[in-house]
Structure formats: C-alpha cells, structure tokens
Amino acid sequence: MAKKMLYTITADELGINDDNDLKLYCTPGSIAPYWASQPNFSNDVCVATVQDFLSDAGFDSIEGFEGDFTFDMQIELPEPL
Asked: Which single residue of 13, 26, 43, 50 could bond 33 by disulfide (Cβ 3.0 to 4.6 Å)?
C-alpha cells in the first residue's frame, strides 16, 4: 500500500514554484519530496504540481494569494523499487 503524507506550502512558496515551472518530485521509497523543474534521478516521480494544490483547494489560479496563506494536500509517495 502506498504511503501518503500531508504536504503544506505557503502561497508565497507556491507562487515562486509556479513562476519557475517547478513540480514536486519524490524518489521511490523516500519520504522527502522536492521541488524541481525536472527529476533528479530517472526513476523519480512527479507527485504534485502547483495546479494540483490549487485544484485540491478549489481554486484555479495562484493570483490573489500571498503571505502565510497555506495550501495543504495529501500526496501519495511512490513505492520503493
């Protein structure tokens, strides 16, 4: 069974990730996802995008959010290989 974790990010951080076209990746078996424009390793998996966080919260755009407003989302971590 895949592990899930609650990932919390502020609107400011999410906006920066959106501006830089970053996605949330995770190495299979790891519990530490990371934001990047591409995976660090060929087997790393994209577990969420900025749009995923917005959609999960019921929004279409990051515009209008700022500061300490937070987005929380359950993400599924990839199984070890």
From this structure: 26
